[in-house]
Amino acid sequence: MPGTKVDYIIVGQGLAGSWLAFEMLKRGLSIHVFNEDKEATSTKKAAGLYNPITGRNMIKTWRADDFFPSLERNYEELEKEVGMRFIHPVRIYRPFKTIEDRNDWDGKASDPGYGIYLSEFRDKSMGLEHVNDALGGIVLNHSGYIDLSFMLKSVQSHLIDKGVYTSEVFDYDMIEMNSDWVSYKDYSAAKIIFCEGSLSANPYWQQLPFRPVRGEVIDIQCDLNSNFIINQGVFMIPKQGRFTVGSTYDHKNLVFEPQESGIKSLEERLKKLYTGAYRIIEKRAGVRPATHDRKPYIGLHHAYKKLGIFNGFGTKGVSLTPYFAKHFVDVLQGKSELDKEVNVQRVL
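The structure assignment produced for this chain is given below.
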């Protein structure tokens, strides 16, 4: 057995790997994280939005009641641990697109299942200059954004300070397994958990039906004065005198460089929401680790029980990962059965 023994080896330190590492350390488990520290990752490029009401029909996102009531508290706990601030609670204003939308929400406003997320129902414009909201809209609670790039750097520094982080390209050929432990180079562990994203060359998970999606976002400068995230067709997140605008969805061209077609689509949708002048300051793109059914892949390999996966959180990773990191560690510690909806065995 190699010299350094830990409870778990984690491969990848994006959003998923960061939360899994934090949850394990919080419980007194020993870990070591191996991560290829590269600039082009889905988490570093993402806008970091968390939003309980999504989609064209403006309904609660999948299992919102599980994730959102404790979401901000979870991120604040992580902030306290690493000594940095990266969560920004901001209310979302969602203008109504049609009279039918407004009538539908007139009924939902009194529904206790939606009331926790609803700050205000408006049947007339909010009066934000150049914002197309003639029919009014809803203002949401339990929403905001995470500065994901800063969060990853903060967590990485925390792991380095603890001596549990190595920056390198993981070599799958160096894995050795027996019935009691799995080893990688000088480390041995009970299990290796992979948190690498959907474009990984990991030979143990090639059969999974990932459906990665590229998304563009742009940062713009404009005269809009708003303390809300405005979300209709696109989102506009206020960030220190500018707005982050997103996003696009492309399952075919999976590159980390912004594409002209994507930026054009984004601007066309932006102009339907915001009619004022603006200037693009920055363009960026990322590839999200989405799955065939938009639910993450969590659990152990069907043939190699020492190998696990915590991956595939897609466009809602900010909302899902804190909850499922707690859940997966519960499972690994024998305190809970793995949730069937996210169990990777559903596709193996």
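Interim note for the steering committee: Residues 317-332 form the longest helix (16 residues). The chain has nine helices and 23 strands.
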